[in-house]
Amino acid sequence: MTDPSQTPEARRRPRVSPWFALGLGALVLLGFVAMGDVESLTEHMGRWPMETLLGVLGLSLAGYFIRAARWSVYLRRLGIALPAGDSAHVFFAGMVGSITPGKVGEVIKSALLENRHGIPVARTAPIVLAERVGDLLALVLLATAGVVSTGYGLEVVALGATLALTVVIAAVWPPMGRLVVRWASRLPWLGRFAPKLEEARRATQELFGTATLFTGVFLSLLAWACEAVGTWWLINSLPGAEATLAEATFVFAFSTVAGALTFLPGGLVATEGSMVALLHGVLKLAPDLSSAGAITLMVRAATLWFGVALGGVALSTYARGKTDAGEQGEART
């Protein structure tokens, strides 16, 4: 009997090491420990009631399901019909790529679809781009009110909006899209993929149609709003800290945009640094540096790291299902 792990499809199965993500997270945690009072930080971390933590995780989970619905909308726009459960499973498996620069690692979803359903990666990979643009536009919208009221961070939000709109224009204007494909085809390491690049360009144009774009941004707004409410809940559940929902939304959205624009894996360091600065230095929502650090660590645990953990479980079970199917097929043979 052939070992399923040695089949061509199994060898192509994307592998994402959890040690890379854990290593980066550990560095961030060490940074917080180094800049503050360790005893005070751990004391703050233990002050949240369990029901608050579970509620915040529930809000994050709701946001993930909204993003899974957005993924399904994009698949249908490309004429790809998957059972709802399989579509959601692939989406959650892709969340393990959230810890890569610009979340480009989420293209693992396309590799999974090709391995199991034979759908070309070039056809579905543009969905990851559409997701990132929708996320960036939604976060810019959520952060704008805070920028106007505080006068803080205008350059960062303007840069995020400019980047997102530039991608939209390139996607919906065929001459620019073809120019990008021709330029990319001349690169030694991309030239051999020229036909696939053109297929990806056509798929991208479909995904950035007016109705699909607005639907994607609307669902992104709902998803990120869930995490912003979670941030507000965490801030106000910590003794001595207090914020309005608008202030908490600004802290969360601006910090996430700042992290995304650095293209660091998961926005690490930049997101945390921005959040601490806003909580304690700019808006004075947290009474001291340790409480600001505790809020930041808990927000990131409930959003980024919770998602990565769910992604790891989903990827493992999805891969296990593929192996089980192969073993059953061989047994029938």
Uncertain stretches: 1-18, 323-333
Strand percentage lies at under 5%
Q: What count of structural domains?
A: 1
What's the tally of helices? Answer: 15
Radius of gyration over alpha carbons?
A: 21 Å
Please trace the helix and strand order, writing H or E for each element. Answer: HHHHHHHHHHHHHHH
Distance between the termini: 10 Å
Proportion of helical residues = over 70%
- Strand tally: 0
Indicate the mean pLDDT. 84
Shape by Cα distribution? globular
The helix-and-strand class reads mainly alpha
Largest sheet, if any? Answer: none
Describe the structure in brief.
With 333 residues, the chain is an all-alpha fold. Helices cover 77% and strands 0% of the residues. The chain has 15 helices and no strands.
List the helices and strands and how they pair.
Elements: H1 8-12, H2 18-35, H3 38-45, H4 50-77, H5 84-94, H6 108-117, H7 121-124, H8 126-150, H9 154-172, H10 174-185, H11 194-207, H12 210-237, H13 245-262, H14 270-282, H15 289-332
Can you put this structure into words, describing what you see?
By secondary structure, the protein is mainly alpha-helical. The chain has one domain (48-322). It contains 15 helices and no strands. It has helices at 8-12, 18-35, 38-45, 50-77, 84-94, 108-117, 121-124, 126-150, 154-172, 174-185, 194-207, 210-237, 245-262, 270-282, 289-332.
